[in-house]
Design brief:
Shape: elongated
Radius of gyration: 23 Å
Order of helices and strands: HHHEEEEEE
Low-confidence stretches: none
Structural class: alpha+beta
Mean pLDDT: 83
Number of helices: 3
Helix content: 40-55%
Largest sheet: 6 strands, antiparallel
Strand order of the largest sheet: 2-5-4-3-1-6
Strand content: 15-25%
Distance between the termini: 60 Å
Number of strands: 6
Amino acid sequence: MPALVPALALSLPWFGGLLHMMYLQAGFGVPSDAINVSVYSSCAASLKLAGLALGLAAVVLALAGWMRHYHQWVHARGMVRIGVPLLNLLIIGISLAAGLAGAEASANRARTAATASTVPAPYYGIRSRPVCVTSLAERTPVFNGPLSTTRPLLTFSTSGDRVWLWDPQLGESLSVRLEDVVVTEARSSTCW
């Protein structure tokens, strides 16, 4: 068991990053490296699922130990050597798949909230908010445009000199340079 601690310490931030990537890319089309998320938030995202997987794996190991102790598996040594590790891998795989499905469900709830012009709930360090965007030039270069200036768009944060936005009406992600636009917090369902 002590040998699993370093592996768990390395896998928690990785799996949390995977959950954040699923939330951002599958839910909003925003690249996951465009949003800065702390390591603590990544660990927190995966901690509940890792605890569930480890708890269920411990139950399987406990049942196998109980059956072996009371001689239930005397003649089934191959079953013990192959079946218990495979069952634990299956439990861990199901827990990981449940985490990815949960991240996608959270993204669906956030999209629904953004479409209703409300502030979506945060997702383990990722905070989004509706903003109004005003272009400073007549022609603003927009990645995956056009840029809407009449309705609120959802933003997650800035990434260097760019801001990533999600248009609830089009269901598309947009990216503009910060020097080309003015971003203000949306006060109502329309922008002036």
